[in-house]
Amino acid sequence: MRTAVGPGCRTDSGDLLDLDAAAETYARRAGELPDGAPRRGARDAMVAAALPFAARLARRYRNRGEPLEDLEQVARLGLVKAVDRYDPARGSFTAFAVITITGELRRHFRDHSWGVHVPRRLQELSLDVTQATAVLTSELSRAPNIAEIADYLGVVEADVRTGQELAAAYTATSLNRPVSEDGRAELGELLGAPDGELSLVEDRLTVTTLIGRMPARERRILAMRFYGNHTQDEIAAQFGISQMHVSRLLSKALTWLRTAMLSDAPAAWPESSASTVPSARVTAVDPAVVTVTVTGEIDRDAAGMVRDELLRAIKERGGAARVAVDFAQVPFIDAAGMAALLSAEAAAAEAGVGFVVRRAPGHVRRVLTTAGLDRLFEEPAAV
């Protein structure tokens, strides 16, 4: 396991060096001073100089059910022991003081805070897991997984799980604890109430079934994001794609899930996928309408191409009075894609030509409607 001053008690490296130098000087002089006031004075000065260091170590253990004042008192006791036992030949004072003071703090928790008897080794394991979780959360900007905690502590994953489970034994709550100001109601009287989680069982089963209908890539991305606590950048690195692409895939999957959850007969997952190369081309021309068929996801990368093709079709429409965009094979559109439609709509209006969108899939239709572009739909929404 790692032994360090730790992130909870960061201090300037110069301060640590000054403290180490002062301790070494004290240890050398203490042997030369006679017993009595001179030696006690030097010892008291050394302890006073190191008090802020001990306080920082104590603050590492705050918010664990023990008053900070008590923890600081325990840390001071450990500091006194460290000063009395310090031997410069064995290394720096600060490293020795960390071990001594931390040991006193852990002993205090073992003796005063565990509501259920737990062996000493397991108590220390639980405290290590709790501390490592806090450190890694700060370093990673997210909750660490079991493997990361195990690697940080140098233990196996089973030990991390054990340490997490033991946290429940840290402070046991009495069933006779009053839960009202008048003391008439006790905690035990509230047990056995209906479990609110039961109402979510059906939804969770439905979500599980729907996720099973998704392609393997989308299933894995959802699992990494919401079960593995991975960031979008980390997911993007795993798949070799951009963070923006991951964001689009998550948005598409979650939108489909929400729609399917509210439907009695969920639609199948769109067969068109991101692997379809986006395209836009004129596929039909008649005296009244020019049809432009668009395929693939219309995102930032494809929006420019789609806009240019729509503008070209409007400009070269011949005598046609309307340009229709077929979206039947468009599974996704983002803000850049909507901007391309707005550019085409403006160009069509300037040319006095009608501009409509046909056969937009449900998800795309909802996105365009939310953005206020439902005026472009040629056909009304299905009832």
From TrEMBL:
<dbReference type="GO" id="GO:0003677">
    <property type="term" value="F:DNA binding"/>
</dbReference>
<dbReference type="InterPro" id="IPR036388">
    <property type="entry name" value="WH-like_DNA-bd_sf"/>
</dbReference>
<dbReference type="InterPro" id="IPR014284">
    <property type="entry name" value="RNA_pol_sigma-70_dom"/>
</dbReference>
<dbReference type="InterPro" id="IPR007630">
    <property type="entry name" value="RNA_pol_sigma70_r4"/>
</dbReference>
<dbReference type="InterPro" id="IPR002645">
    <property type="entry name" value="STAS_dom"/>
</dbReference>
<dbReference type="Pfam" id="PF04542">
    <property type="entry name" value="Sigma70_r2"/>
</dbReference>
<dbReference type="Pfam" id="PF04539">
    <property type="entry name" value="Sigma70_r3"/>
</dbReference>
<dbReference type="Pfam" id="PF13466">
    <property type="entry name" value="STAS_2"/>
</dbReference>
<dbReference type="InterPro" id="IPR000943">
    <property type="entry name" value="RNA_pol_sigma70"/>
</dbReference>
<dbReference type="InterPro" id="IPR013324">
    <property type="entry name" value="RNA_pol_sigma_r3/r4-like"/>
</dbReference>
<keyword id="KW-0238">DNA-binding</keyword>
<dbReference type="InterPro" id="IPR007627">
    <property type="entry name" value="RNA_pol_sigma70_r2"/>
</dbReference>
<dbReference type="InterPro" id="IPR007624">
    <property type="entry name" value="RNA_pol_sigma70_r3"/>
</dbReference>
<dbReference type="Pfam" id="PF04545">
    <property type="entry name" value="Sigma70_r4"/>
</dbReference>
<dbReference type="InterPro" id="IPR036513">
    <property type="entry name" value="STAS_dom_sf"/>
</dbReference>
<keyword id="KW-0731">Sigma factor</keyword>
<dbReference type="InterPro" id="IPR014322">
    <property type="entry name" value="RNA_pol_sigma-B/F/G"/>
</dbReference>
<protein>
    <recommendedName>
        <fullName>STAS domain-containing protein</fullName>
    </recommendedName>
</protein>
<feature type="domain" description="STAS">
    <location>
        <begin position="279"/>
        <end position="383"/>
    </location>
</feature>
<dbReference type="GO" id="GO:0016987">
    <property type="term" value="F:sigma factor activity"/>
</dbReference>
<keyword id="KW-0805">Transcription regulation</keyword>
<dbReference type="GO" id="GO:0006352">
    <property type="term" value="P:DNA-templated transcription initiation"/>
</dbReference>
<keyword id="KW-0804">Transcription</keyword>
<dbReference type="InterPro" id="IPR013325">
    <property type="entry name" value="RNA_pol_sigma_r2"/>
</dbReference>
<dbReference type="InterPro" id="IPR058548">
    <property type="entry name" value="MlaB-like_STAS"/>
</dbReference>
